[in-house]
Amino acid sequence: MPPDVEKGFAEVLDRDPRKTHPYRAGLLARQAMRFSASELRRCEEEIQEANEKLVSSGVSSRAILELMLIRMLRRGEGGRRTVREV
To answer: Is the Cα torsion angle 78, 80, 43, 29 positive or negative in sign?
Structure first.
């Protein structure tokens, strides 16, 4: 990954979640309510698969991340979105 992206991830992931401002935590909780538990698990699997490809593949990181997003936002059975629309 580009150094600036790596630095951004490091800053976000190194924070202690207990130090998150309560207003921000509330916003994140409301956003999370848009997804079912199975949808979140499926997205987590997509993220793990993309991470494996990022570290072990010669494919560009941009292509891997774009494909991950497409898969995460794909429609489920019956033409319904797998991510609830607002």
So the answer is: negative
pTM score, whole prediction: 0.58
Q: In the numeric block, which tokens belong to residue 35?
A: 């997804």
Between CA 39 and CA 76 the distance in angstroms is: 10
Residue 83 phi, psi (nearest 5): -110, 125
Give the whole-angstrom CA distance, residue 83 versus residue 75: 8
The DSSP 8-state label assigned to residue 83 in this structure reads S
Distances (CA, A) of 30 to 9, 24, 33, 69: 23, 10, 5, 21
Cα–Cα distance for residue pair 20/4, rounded to 1 Å = 23
Please state the length of the chain: 86
Mean pLDDT, residues 17-34 taken together: 84
Name the packing angle between helices 61-72 and 37-56 (round to 10°). Answer: 170
